[in-house]
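User: For my dataset I need records formatted as: sequence, then structure tokens, nothing else. Please produce one.
Assistant:
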Amino acid sequence: QVQLVESGGGLVQAGGSLRLSCVASGNIFSVNVMSWYRQAPGKQRELVAAITSGGSTSYADSVKGRFTISRGNAKNTVYLQMNSLKPEDTAVYYCKVALWSGVDYWGQGTQVTVSS
């Protein structure tokens, strides 16, 4: 079992920055990939960024060059640094942890609202 607690969402003006955090507890030694997804009203949930246990990263085209995903030194925390935010980045952001066993765990979500 893995428990996830997200924080860092909020309201920001276009062009501003936010940093999301997701702290994992429990069976963190089985974690393979940590990811951030987002879901805007009326849209499907989409992958924003991911980082593997080896440190490889990947990003959605819409956020490349603006968002940076990273893991803390203790490897149980994942961050999403979001710069140059746009109104279209408004969504609920979810942290996901994928274990080596193939089981996934999701956080409760944190709201990010970007005003124009």
